[in-house]
Amino acid sequence: MISFLIYKAILVGVVFGITLFIAAYSTYAERKVAAFLQDRIGPDRAGPFGILQPLADGLKFIMKEEIIPNVSNKILFVLGPSIAMLTALMAGVVIPWGSTLVINGETYSLQIVDLNIGILYVFAVVSIGVYGIMIGGWASNNKFSLLGAIRASAQMISYEIAMGLSIIALIMMTGTLSLREITELQTGAVGSSWNFWNVVYQPVGFLIFLVCAFAECNRTPFDLPECETELVGGYHTEYSSMKLGFYLFAEYINMFISSAVISTLYFGGYNFPFMNDLGMDQNIITIIGTIGLFIKIGFFIFFFMWIRWTIPRFRYDQLMNLGWKILIPLAIINIFITGLFGIL
Amino acid sequence: MELKETPDQFYQPEEKQYSYLNLGPTHPATHGIFQNVLKMDGEMIVESTPTIGYIHRAFEKLAERRPFYQITPITDRLNYCSAPINNIGWHMTVEKLLGVEIPKRVQYLRVIIMELARITDHLICNAVIGVDTGALTGFVYMFQQRELVYEIYEEICGARLTSNIGRIGGFERDFSPKAWDKINRFLKEFPLVLKEFENLLKRNRIFIDRTVGVGGITAERALNYSFSGPNLRAAGVDYDVRVALPYSSYQDFDFIIPVGSNGDVYDRFMVRQEEMWQSLNIIRQAIDKLPDGPFHADIPDFYLPPKEEVYNNMEALIYHFKIVMGETDVPKGEVYHSVEGGNGELGFYLISDGGRTPFRLHFRRPCFIFYQAYPEMIKGSMLSDAILTMSSMNVIAGELDA
């Protein structure tokens, strides 16, 4: 029992640490990717190749003066970024970061909790995230913030429906809500068992999910809640110091979690081709699988950035049209077709 | 103490309640100091009230206290994105007053400079349309090219943004070989970048959705407001000062005036884009046809003599002194000269009473006119559209407020 608790505590700590680490280095990667796409150098002052830039940024955020507007609702003003950060961090719990490790005859799963409703949990937690933005935007008592918050909530609510519907098709196919079971069903990919990744069976669902993930993370082309050319800073216009840092950080964590969910649901999670045919030890397969998962996540994070620095953003009404008139019908058709194949 | 109840100016007891949003004077999207008080119904703009005059610097009044050659730096600060056009326009106005014959070479060199300036102006405008729709990357590439143009200015006159380029009567010196190298380099590199930028946005679905039908104005309304330049041409009227009233030998060159149809943001973007290609074309033609000859007109009353002359020749020293002190004779008269500026017809209305300074100088500033139409153009559109409309009209605070 004690060893179980210790192992879980270590696992929680590691996942927490890795999430923060990757989110921090996403900011660095974002700037480097932007620089690469824009023919610039990017941050290169802090440490070799600017590798310490996230630390410098964090330090700067902490050292900045904390300003809470007099006209704001102070409790909610502080609560906003806290909720955003908290919910962003909570989603990592159910994601299977790897298969199982066998040490001294005992098996250790590289997943904190294997909830049988893992997907629902992720959805629930991510949905709460919008409260952070709404509360922050409302509590600032600033019209730009309020507009940003309204845009954020409207966007999140409408895109969550399409996202959920795209997942339903996947669940109909796999027959489970547990993220680990969904991953296990994709084992092997190429090789003895010929279980393909879900993206092969659900290409439309994947595309819908991807688009919705962009909207959920408030990334371009769906970055309306914070588009600086219209709303100054959007919902975080009035924020300063680490509270602003929390909002920005939460966005990067969300991006990381979204990438992890996409990889798990549609790209086989920790599975990799020929994994059962090379005759490797289970532990080695697990480690390679985990590394593979992080490579997939890294690719999707890069994809998020690639899109951000390439294409323009939607207008508010166009965003709503896309969500309600295109994605949701498309997702429903996808469910229908999946059902049809299920019967046959 | 009892608080006195003050009536809220925005309170409307019977009507629907609207919110008021201050767009500006400092807002990241208003490129300069503009203020717009928007009356908003959610995200829709019901009404807008622009404020003009935040950076009014009384240029026209200042000009009445300055000798003619000292007015050039003032014109820099009008449309600072294409300062050389303003400078050269002013020089040409004075030359028109004096009735001087300008050598062909000077005219051609001026055409090269003015077209380079037009390119910088249009590229900033189009790049900023990209930024305001959220596509930042094109902007960076375009700005790199602007830098190349500024290096050309630097080689010719020593300055960059506020160029103060040229003199009344011509240029202070001929273009150096280095300047020609830089111009040729720009002509070689810029088309590639421009093409790339065009590919990035021209057929991008999101960009088209964002810009087509946004911030439109009909040709009739545009003419009623006395629009000119790319904004008028986007609405479908092919009026270009370079063709209508050719100056500085523009009649010698072949070029097309691109014309739009709807007068919306996309048309303005495409008109500017095509004008950049045409400007490149004109520059190439000017370089090919460039005649030899002096690089300034023979007007000793206004054009500073070379330094060797000043130090060794009594006449030259006297002229130098008189020009610097602004004591040369100016004919009486009234002159209007207009050039096709970056934004439209930039006019100079000059009345001289024979004194050392203009009696009255009026700048016809296209931005001042565009901004009058702005509330009408954004009425009923969304906040995002308002910002795009503003950036696509290329309203520049310096020119708006003078």
Q: What features would you describe in this structure?
A:
The complex is a heterodimer of chains A (344) and B (402). Chain A has helices at 2-37, 53-63, 74-90, 118-139, 143-174, 179-184, 198-201, 203-216, 228-231, 241-266, 282-308, 316-343, and strands at 100-103, 106-109. Chain A has 344 residues and is mostly helical. Chain A has one domain. Chain A has a two-stranded antiparallel sheet. In chain A, a hairpin with a 2-residue loop joins strand 1 and strand 2 (106-109). In chain A, 46% of the residues are buried. The mean pLDDT of chain A is 83. With 402 residues, chain B is mainly alpha-helical. Chain B has one domain: Cytochrome-c3 Hydrogenase, chain B (Orthogonal Bundle), CATH 1.10.645.10. Chain B has a three-stranded antiparallel beta sheet with strand order 1-2-3, covered by helices on one side. In chain B, strand 2 and strand 3 form a beta hairpin. In chain B, helix 4 (104-133) runs antiparallel to helix 5 (137-157) and helix 4 runs antiparallel to helix 11 (265-289). The N and C termini of chain B lie far apart (47 Å). The model of chain B has no long low-confidence stretch (mean pLDDT 86). The chains are: A mainly alpha (344), B mainly alpha (402). At the A-B interface, helix 5, helix 9 and helix 12 of A face helix 4, helix 5, helix 7 and helix 15 of B.
